[in-house]
Amino acid sequence: MNNLVMFDYDGVLVDSLAVFTSVFIASCRQNGYHGIDSQERLLRLFDGNLFEGMAGLGLDHQAIGRILNTFQADIGGHLDKVKLFDGMAEAITGISRRNTIVIITSNVSHIVRQVFWEKGIDSFDAVMGAEKEKSKTRKIKQAMTRYRKRPAYYIGDTLGDIIEGRKAGALTVAVTWGWHDKEKLKNAQPDFLVSSAEELTELFTNHEKGATDGSQ
Q1: Which domain holds residue 62?
Q2: Rg (CA), the chain
């Protein structure tokens, strides 16, 4: 095995923004919170850590937990609307041949596993969801501790992903097909910027320690 390659889930592997938005807003409303009422407002929370952003809106730990529990209970009924991005099944399979893959997400672990099972994807070692730990930085560090002495990469699609990956000490890879656009991602100064599943595969399969920096 060459590298530890950690993937975000929503916006990197699966096209789930519409589903995530509708279920998340509904979960907030069911628990008496109406401050997140549009996709635009939800996406702002991903400028950093989702749950820290919710706390910044005045939601306490208990309220955030109730919203997450409702989301976890409801999202499973919408998985038929979640689609893998073009080329991502092949990318994750190809990358896994010489690297260890871990999924680190603000979604729920069993939902990720269910989607992958339905898509026939089993090329990953672990899924670390929000029910285990809400900080991606801490989850990335935990994975890096488990898989010591390997170059570690975190692949994300939001400003918050890149910030948390860098805080954890991982090399960061921003993908341009997800929830935040290319210009916003550039502001986070990721180590690599890729625009297709094929570019992502090449980053880990054609070079021992990466490819040409995408900012060039």
Answers
A1: 17-79
A2: 16
